[in-house]
Amino acid sequence: MGRRRRLRTVRRRVVLVCLLVAAALGGRAAPAWAHANLVRTDPANGAVLVRAPAAVRVVFDEDVRVGPGVAAVRNGGGSILRGRARIVGGNSLVVALRHGLADGDYSVRWSIFSDDGHLESGVIAFAVGAGRAPPQAGLEPVATGPTLDSTFSRWLFTAGTLGAVGIALLGLIVVRRPDGETAERIALLLVVSAVFVAGGAGSEAHRVGLDTRDGTALTVGLVVAVVVALLAGAATLERRALRPALVLALGLVAVPSVAGHALDPGLARVNVGADVLHVAGAAAWAGVLVGVVALPLAPTELRRASSLALVGAAVVAMTGIVRASFELLAVSQLWSTGYGRALLVKTAFFVLLVWLGRLNRARLVPLLARARLRRNVTAELVLLAGLVAAVAVLVQLRPGRNTIALAAAPAPAVSVAEPGPQPPRPPRGAVVLAREAGPLAVAVEVEPRRLTAIVLSPAGGGLSGLGVRFLPAGAAAVPCGSGCYSAPLAARGTVTVEVTGLGPMRRATFALPASAPAADKLVRRAQRVFHGLAGVSYRERLASDLTHVVVSRWRIERPNRVFYAIPGGAEGIVVGTRRWDRDTPGGRWRASAQTPLTQPATQWETSTNAHVVARGRGTVTVTFADPGIPAFFSVVFDRRTLLPRVLHMTAAAHFMTDRYTGFDPTRVIRAPG
Prior knowledge:
Layout: H1 2-23, E1 38-42, E2 47-49, E3 55-60, E4 64-66, E5 71-74, E6 86-88, E7 92-96, E8 104-114, E9 119-128, H2 148-175, H3 180-208, H4 213-235, H5 242-250, H6 255-259, H7 270-294, H8 299-327, H9 333-336, H10 338-361, H11 370-394, H12 400-408, E10 431-437, E11 440-447, E12 450-456, E13 467-471, E14 475-476, E15 478-481, E16 484-487, E17 494-500, E18 506-511, H13 520-531, E19 535-543, E20 549-557, E21 561-565, E22 571-575, E23 578-582, E24 590-593, E25 608-616, E26 619-626, E27 631-638, E28 644-651, E29 654-662
Parallel strand pairs: 2-9
Antiparallel strand pairs: 1-3, 3-7, 4-8, 5-8, 6-7, 8-9, 10-11, 11-12, 12-16, 13-14, 13-17, 15-16, 17-18, 19-20, 19-29, 20-21, 21-22, 22-23, 23-24, 25-26, 26-27, 27-28, 28-29
Helix pairs in contact: 1-8, 1-10, 2-3, 2-5, 2-7, 2-8, 2-11, 3-4, 3-5, 4-5, 7-8, 7-11, 10-11
């Protein structure tokens, strides 16, 4: 009697946890991006151009693959495509256009697959001819919602995964040593499940492409499923092959997590573990349901099956709470987004399954009720199939966190195709700090009662028309010039500059120094010391954004000699008025004329707003600006010699770090012999 009461208590708790899933769906999410997000188009949507572009470039914040339905037309006319669309640099879709387009209105439809396998599409319109009115789009985007084919493929894959992993758990934990008819049935169930996995994974991998994370993960799942099917098929003749098949089938539990939203960039990695456990819990439950219907389980095995199902349901509920808290930003997204509505349907199926399972668990042991039990468990399997259908739709939808981000981020207000005007010089006495934020250079100019942010465009100059806030105060900045945004704010400790209005939100965080003595004289002395050296060697890291980086070695010598080498790549030598280049080490040198380069020369020409922001053992760190470039510098100098040790430069699409390795007076640069 006490045992039965404890079981009822456990079941009530399981139901309670399941109901808490729906109540906890509004948990706060970490900021992240599930799909590839549009950063900019060139030309911009609605642009009126004097000359026709050779191509349309659509730039995203992560690697993408060409999708279906790319088109370019003259509005009211025919196609203007020149060849197939292609991906450049991993994250840019380039749609080549025919040469010599006449004045008129044109539309281009872009379509891509993001790394997580989601199809995204949009349309831009541009006009050719000075003085024309802004154009209207003459095309519609490709439909990106779930299709019948993709949903069926995802259903096959998900149902097969739950079946294969569930049967493996059932065979290893509940039955333990299957033999005879039980072993044969387990092997056949495993074959069917693996075939489902292979069919669904193969179809989806073909649709999204092997060069996406989703496609790669699905292809791995397909290969594992084929091996499992072969081993399980062999187990019908040779029982020793069954256990390896069961163990290998467990590996399929990670495939949905690697392919899906849990591994999206920016999400905490706890999501991956929670998602794997979520799939494992659902699979354990599904395996028990299939086992009760299809296998002749003994009473002790039925008790173990009951425990496995209870554990599986509890794991599904708890990990569902974790995953939902990262995918939705607010409770209202449950009914305001397609993702939320699909999640509600999934949760409803789950609660019904728990309720029906609570009725059926009481009949697991009495063998006289076996026929009725199987009918009820079959009903559970039908509900489970409906839940899997909801999941098949859910994984193809944009999570709520991403929907809100898109709604909050306005369309690009400015074009970065052309350089902007130079930003204003820093105010006298302001401490300047700078760093990169994706493709943007962001600086903060700190005054006693005012903060000013400078945002440099990747094309050069200031980038205006953005939304800028200073955190944690949340103060909105107002424009103060080209790429200049200011707010009356006395900040201490740490300040974050938040930039919106050009693709995804960007943030740059700065630690403000408690004191920052002026250092203009120190920088000028250090520059004179550097100009007087005979030879300097350093290693340089140069980036234009987070993904485009070049590392090189440099040697400069008095009065006009330069050598650089990219490991495994190009090399160059300058001696006075002559220059030599080659594409690879050991390749043939090509000579050309050269304007003499006076050396050694510092990376900056003039400096303003120099301040000491940190001191170390034998070093001093100074920040300053060079308004002529414009660029912002942070240099670690040797306190005794004033020679640089490390230099950071932040400029438009130019994020550079030089680490100085020697100041050797020996001449080593020679013209190629």
